[in-house]
Amino acid sequence: MNSNVPQLSSRNLTILNDQLGSEALLVHKYAHAAQSVSDQAIRSQLYSISEQHRKHYDTLLNYLNSHQ
């Protein structure tokens, strides 16, 4: 545990947990949608959106881990 980093409140932990769940769901939904379409341009865009949400998820997880 890093003593220079303030602890997160239980409310903030709940918010982070909810947001992590939302981002994970969006990663899954956009990736699944990309697999379901035949148009390559749309498929590429959907995969790109999925990756953006994966980055959001990773950023939130790294933030959470840095406060433990």
In words, what does this structure look like?
The protein is an all-alpha fold and 68 residues long. It has a domain at 28-68. Helices cover 79% and strands 0% of the residues. It is built from 2 helices and no strands. It has helices at 10-36, 40-66. Helix 1 runs antiparallel to helix 2. The longest helix is centred in the middle third of the chain and has 27 residues, at 10-36. The radius of gyration is 16 Å and the shape is elongated. The relative contact order is 0.18.
Summary keywords:
about 0% strand; elongated; single chain; mainly alpha; about 80% helix; about 70 residues; 2 helices
Summarize the helices and strands and which ones pair or pack:
Blueprint (H helix, E strand, L loop, with lengths): L9 H27 L3 H27 L2
In brief:
With 68 residues, this protein is an all-alpha fold.
The structure class reads mainly alpha
Our measurement of the CA-to-CA distance between the termini, rounded to an integer number of angstroms, reads 5 Å
Number of helical segments with 4 or more residues: 2
The pLDDT mean sits at 94
| Radius of gyration of CA atoms, rounded to a whole number | 16 Å
Number of strands: 0
Please estimate the helix content: over 70%
Low-confidence stretches at least 5 residues in length (pLDDT < 50)? none
Major beta sheet summary = none
Our estimate of the beta-strand percent is under 5%
N-to-C series of helices and strands? HH
Shape descriptor: elongated
